[in-house]
Amino acid sequence: MAIRILVAADVGAELLDRLAADDRFEVDFRPTRTEDDLAEAVRDAAVLVTRHHNRITSRVLEAASQLRVIVQGTSGLDNIDPGARHRGISVIGLPGENANAVAELVIGSMIALTRTVPSYDRMMRAGVWNREDCATRRELRGHRLGIVGLGRVGGAVARLARAFGVDARAYDPYLGEAEMDRRGATKVSSLAGLLRDSDVLTLHVPLTSETRGMIGAREIALLPPGAFVINTARGEVIDRAALLAALARNELGGIALDVYGDEPPADRWPDDPRIVLTPHIAGCTREAKAAIGRAVYAKICEHFGLEPAG
User: Fold this and answer.
1) Residue 310: pLDDT over 80
2) What are the backbone dihedrals phi and psi of residue 134, each rounded to the nearest 5 degrees, phi first?
3) Is position 263 annotated as part of the catalytic site?
């Protein structure tokens, strides 16, 4: 009997094509957005393929009587109720498959912030040709980059940043100095120490009880005047109100955010060219989607002890 798979998110054609060509699987591609829709769709599925926007609640798990494995096409698993494992359901994430895509957006955000690209874009669209202050802007080289969390994404950011002449340093209590050096960053032993010496701060940690709210008003105040903050991790790791307050006081040079506490955000953000916003797309590229599709297929086969077809 074919193994029934519910693909509840758009993870790209690569996965769907591979599953469709493999008669060991029966595939139901049904992107869902609400708890009701997911609870209904998952009832007969042995495998559930998700992305971060799918909320795997206790109600969804109760409806999934046949479910044996959840494979998520991202590294963070904070959208999945911990009760899944208590029910004997395997939960598999894919750390690193989209690391390069995220890292590239971080570097792009650094350039946009340090060269005030959004401000120049606005002026040009308003018919203003202003080159008077361009020599006050800075190149990336010589900046001190502080990376919180030196996993696969943080490591990719460090390697790319160093190619621009950026001094990459990181705080990650789970990695030793030698491993951090191998990943392209100098180890800093405390978060406070990292913050004090970071011209640019970028966050790359999962959302856990330890990281929720880890960057608040006190931490932001430790940053040098005019520092930039970039968050492509999870919205809840940083205090939104404290971040905006510091920006309003001109204590920060700018912020770039790809993730939010609510997605999509319930509140409008200030109309400020120092704020660069993207809709959780850091890890979403053609190349990343294809890599994730291949990895999801491989993980499903591995879970059931099957050799991948082709």
Assistant:
1) no
2) -65, -30
3) yes
CA angle 84, 211, 193 (to 5 degrees): 155
Question: Residue 199 — φ and ψ, nearest 5°?
Answer: -75, -30
Place of tokens 């609510």: 262
What are the residues whose beta carbons fall under 8 Å from the beta carbon of 305, sequence distance 6 or more?
none
Helix-helix angle 99-114:286-303, to 10 degrees: 150
Q: Which residues lie closer than 8 Å to 78 by C-beta, 6 or more apart?
A: 206, 207, 208, 234
Tell me the C-alpha distance between 187 and 164, whole Å.
19
Active-site pick, 51, 143, 234, 240: 234
| CA separation for the pair 60, 42 (Å, rounded) | 8
Write out pLDDT tens, residues 77-128: 889 999 999 999 999 998 889 999 999 999 999 999 999 999 999 999 999 9
Of residues 280, 294, 302, 303, which has the active-site annotation? 280
Q: Answer yes or no: are the C-beta atoms of 101 and 287 closer than 8 Å.
A: yes
Q: Does the active-site annotation cover 52?
A: no
Q: How far apart are CA 160 and CA 145, in angstroms?
A: 11
Structural contact between residues 154 and 172, judged by C-beta atoms closer than 8 angstroms? yes
Radius of gyration of the chain (CA): 21
The model's pLDDT over 131-160, given as tens digits with 9 standing for 90+, comes to 998 888 999 999 999 999 999 999 999 999
What are 100's two structure tokens?
């390069």
The answer to whether residues 282 and 232 touch, using CB atoms and an 8 Å cutoff, is yes
Closest CA to 54 of 5, 8, 6: 8
Q: How many other C-beta atoms can be found within 10 angstroms of the C-beta atom of residue 52?
A: 21
Pairing of strands 25-29, 47-50: unpaired
pTM of the model: 0.92
pLDDT at 95: 83
**Residues 187, 237: Cα–Cα separation, whole Å:** 21
- Write down the catalytic residue from 62, 177, 210, 263: 263
